[in-house]
Amino acid sequence: RSVQSARKDAKLQPKDTVAVSVQTDPRVFATLTKHVEEIKHATNALLLEEGTGGTECKVGEHTLAIAVVKR
């Protein structure tokens, strides 16, 4: 949901492909990478990478910053 919210904030269309950048604890990012294909498919992303900045969100007890860039 957080990636979809970031897409909406960026005024992207559903057909637009994106790169998703996530800033979080390394253990949380490692968990995300186990599901990278599912995340990419659900968000129309070409790339999921560690990054800095973006829209902050909470997932359980963890805080993430998510940014999307149109590709």
Give an overview in words:
The two termini are 20 Å apart. The protein is of the alpha+beta class and 71 residues long. The model has no long low-confidence stretch (mean pLDDT 92). The chain has a 4-stranded mixed β-sheet with strand order 2-1-4-3. The protein is globular, with a radius of gyration of 11 Å. It contains 3 helices and 4 strands, in the order H-E-H-H-E-E-E.
Short description:
This protein has 71 residues and is α+β, with helices and mostly antiparallel strands.
| Rounded radius of gyration (Å) | 11 Å
Q: Kindly state the number of beta strands.
A: 4
Strand neighbour order, sheet with most strands:
2-1-4-3
The stretches of 5 or more residues where confidence is low (pLDDT under 50) are none
Biggest pleated-sheet summary: 4 strands, mixed
Give the CA-CA distance, first to last residue.
20 Å
Beta-strand share of residues? 35-45%
Elements, N to C (H/E)? HEHHEEE
Overall 3D geometry? globular
Calculate the mean pLDDT score and round it.
92
User: Helix fraction?
Assistant: 25-40%
Number of helices, where a helix is a run of at least 4 consecutive DSSP H or I residues: 3
Structural class computed from helices and strand pairing: alpha+beta
